[in-house]
Amino acid sequence: MNTNTRGRPRIRGAAMWLLLLELRIPLITLIITYSISVLGLVLIPGVTPQGVVYHLAFLDAFYLVSYTATTIGFGEIPHPFTPSQKLWMLFVMYSTVIAWLYSIGSVFAVLSDPAFRRLRFYQRSVSRIHEIKHPYWIVCGYGGAGSQLIRFLDQSGVRCVMIDSDVTRADAARLSASSYELDILVGDVAEPQTLVDAGVQRALCRGVLALTDEDQVNLTVATNTRILAPRVPVYARSSTDANTRNLRSFDTEVVVDPFRVAGRSVTQLIRKPNAFALYHELVDPDLNQIEVVDVPTSGHWIICANGRMAETMVEAFVREQIPFCLVSSIAPVDQGDWLWIQGIGTEAQTLREAKIGEAVGIVAGTSDDGDNLSILLTAQSENPKLLTVARRNKPTSEPVFGQGHFNFVLREGRIIAQEMYARITTPLLHQFLGQLEIMPEALVGGIIEKLNLRLAGERPELAHFDLTLDSEQAPGVIPFLQTAMAPKLGDLLVDPGLDYPGMPLICLLLIRLNGDLVPFPGEGLVLAEGDRLLLWGAMGADRRLYFLVRREDLFESVLSARRLKST
Q1: Residue 5: what pLDDT?
Q2: What phi and psi, each to the nearest 5 degrees, are found at residue 29?
Q3: Is the domain of 162 the same as that of 106?
């Protein structure tokens, strides 16, 4: 904490030092001009009307020069000036005015200097950050992932401090900050002092999100944070396996590889469409409906990609035993029992060699948005029934991809933002997502069907939240846990204001105090103190549930009514 208190004076001192450094010549010019002017008036003798010779005192001379230089001109002259004094006053008039014009111009030049303005903005940003009274997260990098995640977190009421070295992106963030609360720091995230200025050592800092486009920078941010603030968790982006292993070697909280997530998502779409639909509804704040894509279980896919994307897609398809053909300009290092065709995929002949007419789907995953669009348009002209997966690289291409009627669009920044958002806002969600990967597809379909029954045909906005059965979050439930009226899970999922019908909620995961996981528990499960529940359903149902579990009298009436009904 001591380092924090030293950070703010350092910044203020730097700004003041830069100002004085740039104005040193104008200040010296003013001092010399005033000194010579005052000294001349003191040394040049005057004569009174009575013929007595006199010399002005230093105070009188300085007073006369001051009102002359500022063009006020009080005229408080003790006696009429002699010709010598008048000639000197002419020098004083012109020299002081010129000196002041030069100095004022220099001041405006310094204040309008981009470097000084950036430093002043940095100073004000540091001051605001150190005055924050609520918990916050530090987001390093305002690219596709950073901007998306900040927007997601703002929707959940989570405050952020953004760091980016690019002035253009910082300006974009500043414009976005007009619609939500965001503190912006323009600086090098790889510098430890920048993290200190961003408040990484403050008790209110909840974590650091390293989301720059460079793995080495993200690694540096993670290591600096681990040393400067060991208690602060780090969520990092990584695009290589080596960097991922390096980050995890010193207990980085979360590491997200967008390429591996993309490979998992595409194979999940093919093999487990129910799990795919549920996963994306849970992690995407902008998606408020469950859309299950009907994907054929047989037939081959065409993967058009290079580099890291090709590598991770091939690994995912091989692991899930999905037949495919790789279209790539570079020969794969280790080719297994699958077909490789050299090319990009933009030419119809290349796609025909990959048997586009017999394929059930295609993945356009190159690093160029124009090539991806060309691949998909060509593929659709060859096989209109084809399932399409597109990779969008640049956020500026979103209007085209949004109108392209593709089955699934891989947005790298959004993938990272969704993964991290889910872990930050709902701690239990990532544990459920781990269970979701191994759940039978039929069970996931049952979860979706049960929620639809709870919704009774309505299509409200959906949301997820967690609840812990303790004295803080559920004081109205605690007194009944060790009694004959021990509540069951179904007793929580009722609406006390409507004669106790089921609320549009289901429980996705229950975690016991001892760490045992119960995925998709039945409503007859007896609850215990310390149970943590992940609930999912209509937006707004959380408020009604929290109202129920906080009122002991209300919850007792629910238990009595349900017990009476059961008998």
Answers
A1: 39
A2: -60, -45
A3: no
Asked if 97 and 136 sit in the same domain, the reply is no
Could you give the angle at which helices 24-43 and 83-111 cross, rounded to 10 degrees? 170
C-alpha–C-alpha distance, residues 247 and 225, integer Å: 12
pLDDT for the residue numbered 221: 95
Instruction: Tell me, yes or no, whether 91 lies in a domain.
Output: yes
The arithmetic mean of pLDDT across residues 119-126, rounded, is 80
Spatial separation of the C-alpha atoms in residues 165 and 104, rounded to whole Å: 32
The alpha carbons of the chain give a radius of gyration, in whole angstroms, of 35
Q: Whose CA is closest to 327, among 402, 378, 265? A: 378
Residue 125 lies in a domain: no
The CA distance from 539 to 461, in Å, is 6
Domain containing residue 523: CATH number: 3.30.70.1450
- For the segment 161-208, what is each residue's pLDDT rounded down to a tens digit? 999 988 888 888 877 766 667 888 888 999 999 999 999 999 999 999
Round to whole Å and give the CA distance between 139 and 26.
Answer: 42
> Phi first, then psi: what are they for 433, rounded to 5°?
-65, -35
Of 260-264, 271-275, 393-397, 454-458, least confident by mean pLDDT is 454-458
CB 239 within 8 A of CB 216: no
Model confidence, pTM:
0.78
Query: How confident is residue 9, by pLDDT bands cut at 50, 70 and 90?
Result: very low
Of 316, 409, 318, 324, the C-alpha closest to 359 is 324
| Residues 311 and 235 reside in one and the same domain | no
- Rounded distance between C-alpha atoms, residue 82 and residue 63, angstroms: 19
| Sheet with strand 234-237: strands edge to edge | 182-186, 159-164, 136-140, 205-210, 234-237, 254-256
From residue 141, how far is each of 217, 257, 484 by CA, in Å? 10, 16, 55
Q: Does one domain contain both 42 and 86?
A: yes
Residue that is written with structure tokens 């029934």 in the block: 385
Q: Which residues of 273-308 are buried (b: 16+ CB within 10 A; e: fewer)?
A: bbbbbbbbbbbebeeeebeeeebeeeebbbbbbbeb
Q: How many domains does the chain have?
A: 4
Pair (154, 241) in one structural domain: yes
Asked whether residue 249 falls in the same domain as residue 306, the answer is no
Which whole number is the average pLDDT over 248-254? Answer: 86
Whether 79 is in a domain gets the answer yes
Question: Residue 212: left if φ>0, alpha if ψ -120 to 50, beta else—which one?
Answer: beta
DSSP state, 349? H
Residue 95 DSSP code: H
Please give the residue range of the domain that contains residue 169: 132-256
| Backbone torsion region of residue 303, taken as left when φ is above 0, otherwise alpha when ψ lies between -120 and 50, otherwise beta | beta
CATH of the domain at 72: 1.10.287
Q: Is the same domain home to 295 and 350?
A: yes
Residue 80 has pLDDT above 90, yes or no: no
Of 204, 235, 256, the last residue of a domain is 256
- Same domain as 40, residue 104: yes
Measured between alpha carbons, how far is 209 from 138 in angstroms, rounded to an integer?
Answer: 6
The pLDDT tens digits for 346-373 are 999 999 999 999 999 999 999 999 999 9
Q: Decide: 225 and 234 in contact? Cβ < 8 Å.
A: yes
To the nearest whole number, what is the mean pLDDT of the chain? 87
**Helices and strands (H, E) in the chain, number of each type:** 22, 18
Structural domain includes residue 33:
yes
